[in-house]
Specification:
Radius of gyration: 29 Å
CATH class of the largest domain: Mainly Beta
Shape: globular
Strand content: 35-45%
CATH architecture of the largest domain: Sandwich
Number of strands: 18
Order of helices and strands: HHHHHEEEEEEEEEEEEEEHEEHEE
Largest sheet: 13 strands, mixed
Number of helices: 7
Length: 301
């Protein structure tokens, strides 16, 4: 919808002049929820009351060589125009402060662009929130889960997680933040990682992870995240964390019974072949897997 068309439809909506079909279509637009909020705030706004008789008397009493008379039928549209000006102003304010959310459901991945054309891929069961309409003034986003970032050249922003902040400039990197564990991979350029007051700089091929107040920096050789290659990679993680990741990747429910949770696994399992993934986990932890309609049950042998 272009600006003129949008303003025209707004005016008809404010005036109650939409047909039933027009109103239904207008309510299905993504902007409708914002307009409803704005209408709520503008309920108390009062526009000038146009007294046609008084206006006519003032025109007659004014000594002018060429009297200017405002057609009376325009008063209705003048009131709508006044409301529309305020309405559009409130629209800009609310849009600039509103938070936009991108989400990847379990067993799915989502790719989208930020307003500066930086590309983000969200892994399964992850979400990002940011201020889309005010991006140039507030270049920060909130991540819950895991994502891969390809930052546009010369652009910079902060990725905020529950466990720390990652600051970037024109680079490619991955961030994973789940429960009490945070991981950052630098695939290109340089990233700055802040965790509980401690600042670490990563260059290409460096990886850092934080867990239980410990920081470990290692090297890696992959050019893109393994999860983009349909692989789940774990480094010294227990069965609870592995099961939770498998639930996100496969969209299934996994129940663990009679299994010591202090054992840890380091390695890679597929995220596109559930049977193979279960076979690897069962052999590693000495488990038996049983599939039911409600869940996959993992039990110690």
């Amino acid at each position: 919808m272009n600006t003129m068309e949008e303003d025209y439809k707004l005016a008809k909506w404010l005036d109650g002049g939409m047909t039933e079909s027009e109103l239904k279509a207008f309510q299905e637009t993504p902007e409708y929820a914002t307009y409803i909020k704005i209408a709520h705030y503008s309920n108390h706004l009062k526009t000038p009351v146009f007294d046609e008789n008084l206006m006519l008397q003032n025109v007659v009493a004014t000594q002018k060589s060429i009297p200017k008379v405002i057609p009376l039928y325009q008063s209705k549209w003048l009131r709508i125009a006044a409301i529309l000006v305020v309405f559009l102003g409130l629209t800009y304010v609310l849009k600039s402060e509103s938070t936009f959310t991108e989400y990847a459901d379990n067993a799915k991945k989502t790719t989208f662009l930020l307003p500066d054309d930086s590309e983000i891929v969200l892994n399964s069961g992850s979400e990002i929130k940011y201020k889309k309409w005010n991006w140039n003034n507030q270049r920060s986003l909130e991540l819950k889960g895991e994502a891969f970032f390809k930052v546009a050249k010369g652009k910079t922003f902060d990725v905020q997680t529950d466990l720390g902040i990652v600051t970037v400039v024109g680079t490619q990197f991955g961030v994973k933040s789940r429960e009490n564990r945070m991981e950052v991979y630098c695939y290109e350029g340089k990233v700055r990682v802040q965790n509980k007051g401690q600042i670490t700089y990563l260059t290409k091929g460096k990886h850092v992870h934080y867990e239980n107040n410990k920081q470990i920096v290692t090297a890696f050789s992959d050019s893109i995240p393994l999860w983009l290659q349909n692989k789940m990679t774990f480094e010294s993680e227990d069965l609870a964390a592995i099961s939770a990741e498998m639930e996100r990747q496969y969209g299934v429910k996994i129940s663990v019974k009679n299994v010591p949770l202090d054992q840890q696994f380091t390695g890679t399992i597929p995220s596109n072949d559930l049977d193979v993934a279960l076979e690897i986990i069962c052999k590693t932890f000495q488990l038996k897997a049983t599939k039911t309609k409600a869940a996959i049950i993992l039990e110690g042998k």
